[in-house]
Amino acid sequence: MVGITEVSAAMASLQAGKDMLAAMVGIRDGAKLNETRIALQGVILEAQQGLFAAQQAHTASDGRIAQLEQEIMRLKDWSEEAARYELVDLSGGSFVYMQKPGMRTSEPAHWLCANCFGRRQKSILQRRPDERRPTERQWLCPTCKTIFGASYSLSPKYAELVDES
């Protein structure tokens, strides 16, 4: 017959086995918890990277919008300025832009280079004497270096002398 001592020892052994099994389950659950924690950290890191990329794209978009707004203002300003001028023939096929009669401001009378004007740039022509042709004056664009010829009596000051036919 089995005595109380043996039953107690068997019960203690079973209890120890049960405790070891619980500990093993705990270890297994702890390992799973760590795996889940690592996976969750990966998802959080990926989300943070996505947010950072979105923030960078937003910042770049803001910068591009500001550039486009500046470009619109520049084009608007140029359109208003260009409306003050008309293309005229200095005779002999030299075309320049000159202020329209009703658009004169406090600026002195001047001609603008047609080449530069086409590139939305205002470049005032400078008179340059032509020793080879004393009856003709030449006008030089300081920006693109194009030379424009005009009869000696022609100057921006006397716009009415320009033949517009």
Q: How would you describe this structure to a colleague?
A:
With 165 residues, this protein is α+β, with helices and mostly antiparallel strands. The chain folds into two domains: 1-83; 84-161, no CATH class. It is 51% helix and 16% strand. The chain is built from two helices and six strands. It has helices at residues 4-82, 114-118; strands spanning 85-89, 95-99, 111-113, 126-129, 136-140, 147-151. The strands form two sheets. It has a three-stranded antiparallel sheet with strand order 1-2-3. Strands 4-5-6 form a three-stranded antiparallel sheet, with no helix packed on it. The longest helix has 79 residues, at 4-82.
List strands and helices in order, with pairings.
Elements: H1 4-82, E1 85-89, E2 95-99, E3 111-113, H2 114-118, E4 126-129, E5 136-140, E6 147-151
Antiparallel strand pairs: 1-2, 2-3, 4-5, 5-6
Q: Give helix and strand order, one letter per element, not per position.
A: HEEEHEEE
Count, helices: 2
Number of strands: 6
Largest sheet: 3 strands, antiparallel
Residue windows where pLDDT falls under 50 for at least 5 positions: 159-165
Shape: rod-shaped
Give the terminus-to-terminus CA distance.
138 Å
Name the average pLDDT: 79
Strand order of the largest sheet: 1-2-3
Radius of gyration: 44 Å
Structure in a nutshell:
The chain has 165 residues and is an alpha+beta fold.
Identify the notable features of this structure and list them briefly.
single chain; 165 residues; alpha+beta; 2 domains; 3-stranded antiparallel beta sheet; 6 strands; rod-shaped; disordered C terminus
